[in-house]
Amino acid sequence: MAPTGKVREVLVATVSVRLPTVLRPAAGGQSSVEADGSTVGDVVKHLITEFPALETNLVDDEGAVRKFVNVYLNDEDIRFLDKLNTVVAEGDEVAILPAVAGG
User: What percent of the chain has pLDDT over 90?
Assistant: First the structure.
């Protein structure tokens, strides 16, 4: 079959990222920042590029979101979507929250 010449268009969006209090010092004290990407993973990579101190708190050595970090896209847990491959759109909100445990 001959190639059709179609290329999948990847749209880069600017999204708002809410940071928990514990991560704000690594982002210059900001509670919310903007980041660009076409997926949640791209947004996380952009955050780490802009604020390198966030890396050890957000991702493990393989680049996966740490187990004790919850990431939401518009109030939906990305673990129940497409994880880091979840597509983002202009104006979306990503929230990063530390996991809470207790008894």
Answer: 82
Instruction: Give CA separation, 11 vs 22, 31, 62, 89, 100, in Å.
Output: 31, 26, 25, 8, 34
Is 50 strand, coil or helix?
A: helix
The pairing of beta strand 32-37 with beta strand 76-77: unpaired
At 23-67, the pLDDT tens digits run 999 999 999 999 999 999 999 999 999 999 999 999 999 989 999
Q: For residue 34, how many C-alpha atoms fall within 13 Å in the half-sphere facing its CB?
A: 8
Which range of residues forms the domain containing residue 87? 13-98
Phi and psi torsions of 48, nearest 5°: -65, -35
For residue 20, is it within any domain? yes
* CATH label of the domain that carries residue 78: 3.10.20.30
